[in-house]
């Protein structure tokens, strides 16, 4: 798989994720506060992936391929996929997502407006498997030390379009 096609797939996954989680957000307008923000870095995957594998027959069948990608630790960000997604398209969705932030920038915004109403969406590095026809992506929401949530989204590429097939390991604190 070429780097460009990987970034195109990443952009397509982001569009599905953003559409799912930002659909109820109001577009940014003068005097209106956006509550949901996007973390720029691709968060690395961790051993929680093993727990998710154990709960799905499809993931069990592809466990070796998934595990090989699980501990890739190269620092990557979403900027290439973000730019593909929003380069002269999807502008209404972009008005909801706005720019991505570092964790430090999120803390500044959160402290300014009160951390209990701000959320940071963290999208982990996608794990592609089964000839790039499936992807496993962890999505988490950070509000404060005490209030967080997340899940794994299992995607299937059907006729060239990424679709959420299943939500796994949902959690909230």
Describe this structure in words.
The protein has 173 residues and is an alpha/beta fold. 38% of the residues lie in helices and 27% in strands. The chain has seven helices and seven strands. Strands 1, 2, 3, 4, 5, 6 and 7 form a seven-stranded mixed beta sheet that branches. A hairpin with a 4-residue loop joins strand 4 and strand 5. Helix 1 packs across helix 5. It is globular. The mean pLDDT is 88.
Summarize the structure.
By secondary structure, this protein is an alpha/beta fold. 38% of the residues lie in helices and 27% in strands. It has helices at residues 3-22, 48-53, 57-61, 63-70, 79-86, 91-97, 103-113, and strands spanning 36-39, 100-101, 119-123, 127-129, 134-142, 148-158, 161-172.
Notable characteristics:
single chain, 173 residues, alpha/beta, seven-stranded mixed β-sheet
Give helix % range: 25-40%
Give the beta-strand count: 7
Query: Low-confidence parts lasting 5 or more residues at pLDDT below 50?
Result: none
Main β-sheet description: 7 strands, mixed
Taken from the alpha-carbon principal axes, the silhouette is globular
Give the ordered list of helices and strands.
HEHHHHHEHEEEEE
> What gap, in angstroms, lies between the N and C termini?
38 Å
- Mean pLDDT across the residues is 88
Oligomeric state of the chains in view? single chain
Q: How much β-strand is present in the residues? A: 25-35%
Rg from C-alpha positions?
16 Å
The number of helical elements comes to 7
Category from helices, strands and their pairing: alpha/beta
């Amino acid at each position: 798989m070429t780097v460009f096609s990987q970034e195109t797939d990443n952009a397509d996954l982001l569009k599905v994720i953003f559409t799912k989680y930002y659909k109820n957000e109001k577009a940014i307008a003068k005097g209106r506060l956006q509550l949901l923000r996007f973390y720029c870095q691709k968060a690395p995957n961790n051993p929680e992936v093993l727990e998710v594998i154990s709960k799905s027959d499809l993931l069990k069948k592809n466990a070796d391929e998934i595990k090989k990608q699980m501990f890739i630790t190269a620092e990557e960000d979403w900027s290439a996929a973000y730019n593909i997604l929003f380069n002269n398209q999807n502008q209404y969705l972009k008005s909801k997502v706005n720019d991505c932030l570092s964790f430090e920038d999120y803390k500044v915004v959160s402290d300014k407006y009160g951390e209990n109403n701000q959320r940071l969406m963290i999208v982990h590095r996608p794990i592609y498997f089964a000839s790039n026809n499936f992807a496993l992506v962890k999505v988490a929401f950070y509000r404060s030390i005490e209030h967080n949530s997340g899940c794994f989204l299992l995607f299937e590429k059907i006729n060239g379009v990424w679709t959420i097939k299943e939500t796994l390991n949902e959690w909230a604190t």
